[in-house]
Specification:
The structure holds two protein chains of two kinds. Chain A is mostly helical. Chain A is built from twelve helices and six strands. Chain A has a domain of about 220 residues. In chain A, the strands form two sheets. A four-stranded antiparallel sheet of chain A has the order 3-4-5-6, with no helix packed on it. In chain A, strand 4 and strand 5 form a beta hairpin. The radius of gyration of chain A is 24 Å and the shape is globular. Chain B has eleven helices and 14 strands. In chain B, helix 3 crosses helix 4 and helix 8 crosses helix 11. In chain B, a hairpin with a 2-residue loop joins strand 9 and strand 10. Chain B is elongated, with a radius of gyration of 24 Å. Classes of the chains: A mainly alpha, B alpha/beta. Chains A and B meet through helix 2 and helix 6 of A and helix 2 and helix 3 of B.
Chain lengths: ~350, ~300
């Protein structure tokens, strides 16, 4: 086996596959996952088919709407699954008193982390693959570009990777599986939902004097939900939620029809419809983030970048905490091939 | 082969090991004896490069345990006192997994697993799930696991704990076989009899300090300055006691079970003088024998001392 292959494929991966797939839990988890995704897809479809005036009635593109809800729901499910897969990775070895037996082999501690990560990520990828047939039914409606599909899955996988690494870091640090699981779920919920909730509570205020279109608060890019919605909405994400206009006292609104409009600094006008949605006259063009620290980036690029940074940090924490005899950086010593 | 110099391990306020030094030459079986909590496991974990000593140095076959942990790992087979097994794996898969962790090629792994299961007598159970094995069988499997990479040194922490007498004997046979194969073995125990027959060297540890170390008989002699003889006589014991008590070498005389036990200071010729003193006074001695306190007594003596 070449050095690269040996780095990717270590015995821990094979062992994890074996033990994982020999329990009834894995097929059950896969079944529940497919049933939930398919169930949501079917519920969405039937509600759209029945009503022409409901939430889907105004949407011209059934396929894209269905796709949006499915990728977001899939991300929610992955957020629920991934911490459970990795939070026990190291701590359960400690609790079962098998970790020392691994440490005394020629497997460097870093490879233990890597093996555990690869094994759990493979299961996540398996789940994503299982959902492909359901997504392909959605494609029958049309209106979805291939790059939208690829970017959505990329965001989902990278987010799963970051969640997995966070789980392993907690598993290495906290030593008890229960504590690690609780901490991993809290971190995962904070990352995926907490950041979006934060963005909703403290949205970007539309500045009438601004010459650039407003972007959601940068912290919300941490959540994979934002780029997933942005991809499906062609880059105009969550406008009434993450970008809002505060009506200051003393400014008289210009009434035009049902909308409330405000003059903007550059002569443009920001308008709010009677239903409450606000749009800026300096509207974002294209799918890129219009302003802020990630200006000109695609939403998915910002999220992938941030998730990879978080994942890398979690990986370094694990790699630092795991070795029993800390001779940093110990995992770099690759042992020579064993000679008989 | 194994050297430990002034190994010290401090956990917060507690000193688990206090300047422990010893040396084990190649091919010896070193018995590491001490009561529970004396520091045996701590020492073995340091030797296995699983724990960093607070101070001191140790090396296995020239590889320093803190500086070259991976080299140490390839030289040692380690069997902890408590260990778990993975569920959902068979005995053969279990060994194959660890052999793969030692980066052995696939073809050799199959042969090694076969040979080792033969050695520890688990050949017929190769397809049984590891978590369904009895404790004794798990211990044997763990020993086989420690041998997959053919290490030169074996560090065995209480390999016989929790085993029934039969499994104990079988474990001892396996260890004898390993000694014949030329392995250097360090074996810890809080039970002495299981070490006396097996070990060539011994180290007695208590409260984190090495009380005595060296070849078995030397340690016993070192620790048992006082010796005892058991004397059975025909006739009046009182007279014999009266003769024994004034002797300069004799420390204490007790009568028990119709025999007299005299504790004395000295060597074999002192014992001969005691016997002569009795017979010269006309005492009819029917039996006169050294009471061999052995390791057990040496151990009790060494570990009963207060820590200064």
């Amino acid at each position: 086996m070449s050095r690269v292959a040996a780095a990717f494929w270590n015995p821990i991966v094979a062992k994890e596959y074996r033990s994982r797939m020999r329990t009834w839990r894995s097929p059950l988890a896969m079944m529940v996952y497919v049933v939930l995704i398919a169930g949501l897809g079917y519920a969405m479809f039937s509600s759209m088919a029945r009503s022409n005036s409901g939430f889907a009635g105004s949407v011209p593109n059934y396929g894209l709407t269905l796709f949006k809800y499915l990728v977001v729901f899939q991300m929610v499910l992955i957020t629920l699954v991934t911490p459970a897969l990795t939070a026990g990775a190291i701590s359960s070895e400690r609790e079962r008193q098998t970790i020392d037996l691994l440490f005394v082999t020629r497997i460097p501690p870093f490879s233990i982390i890597w093996g555990k990560l690869l094994a759990s990520m493979s299961f996540v990828v398996l789940l994503l693959l299982l959902s492909v047939p359901i997504f392909s039914l959605v494609f029958l409606f049309g209106g979805i570009e291939l790059d939208q599909v690829l970017y959505s899955f990329l965001v989902t996988i990278v987010a799963a990777l970051a969640l997995g690494l966070i789980g392993i870091a907690f598993s290495t640090w906290l030593r008890r599986t229960l504590a690690a699981t609780v901490a991993s779920y809290m971190a995962a919920f904070l990352l995926v939902f907490g950041t979006v909730a934060f963005g909703m509570i403290f949205p970007t205020k539309i500045d009438p004097k601004s010459t650039s279109a407003p972007a959601p608060p940068a912290v919300t890019y941490l959540s994979p939900i934002v780029p997933l919605v942005a991809i499906a909405d062609n880059g105009q994400p969550l406008v009434p939620y993450l970008i809002r206009y505060d009506y200051p006292n003393g400014i008289v609104a210009i009434q035009t029809g049902g909308s409330v409009c405000k003059p903007l600094g550059n002569g443009a006008v920001a308008c709010a419809s009677s239903s409450g949605s606000v749009y800026s006259a300096v509207a974002a063009t294209g799918t890129a983030i219009p302003s802020g620290p990630f200006a000109k980036w695609q939403y998915w690029q910002a999220t992938v970048f941030l998730q990879l940074a978080i994942g890398l940090f979690a990986l370094l924490v694990s790699a630092f905490l795991l070795p029993p005899v800390r001779r940093w950086p110990r995992w770099r010593q690759r042992p020579a091939a064993m000679t008989p | 082969m194994i050297t430990a110099e002034n190994l010290t391990k401090v956990y917060g306020q507690r000193t688990a090991l206090d300047k422990v030094s010893f040396e084990v030459p190649e091919g010896e079986i070193f018995g590491f004896v001490g009561p529970n909590g004396a520091g045996k496991t701590t020492t073995l974990r340091i030797l296995a490069a699983l724990l960093e000593p607070t101070a001191g140095r140790a090396s296995i076959d020239g590889a320093d345990v803190t500086k070259q942990p991976l080299q140490v790992h390839s030289r040692i087979g380690y069997m902890p006192d408590f260990f778990g097994v993975y569920d959902q794996l068979t005995v053969a898969e279990y060994l194959d997994f660890y052999a793969a962790c030692y980066r052995l090629p696939k073809q050799r792994r199959v042969k090694i697993a076969h040979d080792l299961l033969d050695l520890v007598g688990l050949s017929e159970r190769r397809d049984q799930q590891v978590d369904t094995l009895s404790r004794g069988l798990k211990q044997r499997l763990c020993l086989a696991r420690a041998l997959v990479h053919d290490p030169v040194v074996l560090l065995l922490d209480e390999p016989a704990s929790g085993l029934d007498p039969r499994a104990r004997v079988e474990m001892r046979e396996i260890l004898r076989e390993l000694r014949r194969m030329g392995k250097t073995i360090v074996i810890s125990s809080h039970i002495l009899p299981e070490l006396t027959e097996l070990c060539t060297m011994i180290g007695i540890i208590d409260h984190g300090r090495m009380r005595a170390t060296g070849p078995v008989h030397e340690v016993i002699r070192q620790l048992s300055a006082d010796r005892r003889v058991r004397i059975t006589i025909v006739g009046d014991q009182g007279r014999a006691v009266a003769i024994l008590e004034p002797l300069a070498a004799v420390r204490r005389v007790e009568t028990a079970d119709g025999a007299i036990e005299a504790t004395y200071e000295g060597d074999d010729s002192t014992a001969a003088e005691i016997l002569h003193a009795l017979t010269a006074e006309g005492i009819r001695v029917s039996a006169f024998s050294q009471v061999d306190g052995g390791l057990e007594e040496a151990f009790m003596r060494a570990t009963s001392e207060e820590v200064g």
